[in-house]
Amino acid sequence: MQKLECPIDGVRIDETRVRVVAFFVVAFAIAIIFTANPVVAAVLFLDFLLRSLNYGKYGPLNILAGSIATSLKLKSRFVDRGPKRFAALMGTVISGLLFVGLMFGFKPQSQIIAGLLVVFASLESFAGICAGCYIYTWTKQLRPR
Length: 145
Prior knowledge:
The chain crosses the membrane at residues 20-46, 58-74, 86-106, 112-136. By secondary structure, the protein is mostly helical. The protein has six helices and two strands. The protein has one domain. The protein has a two-stranded antiparallel ribbon.
């Protein structure tokens, strides 16, 4: 297997907070699977969009995660923002599809898409595995040299 590559942008962010945000993404996506609520999907889309545009500090899940991390006195661990931003861009696309699907009545398809979010966000939250790095490496292999 090729060496894992991740985008780098030189800005450091708190990985602990990222993992707490991912936990809330899991919770919201599970809620969507059971309720098919487009408002919850809209909140997810907004949060991912803000993170992918480097305005993550204004995202509702980031604000909530910051409160939780502070309350629980979780230790900060800083990592490069690039891989997380790439993953947020993927999350923007996925949650956008999820929201549109729910708005147009594609409930089973939207539940599958929400399940995909559960898988990716669970990897980040519970195991510290950024699926974005794997997908980034794979897409680089597809580009002509």
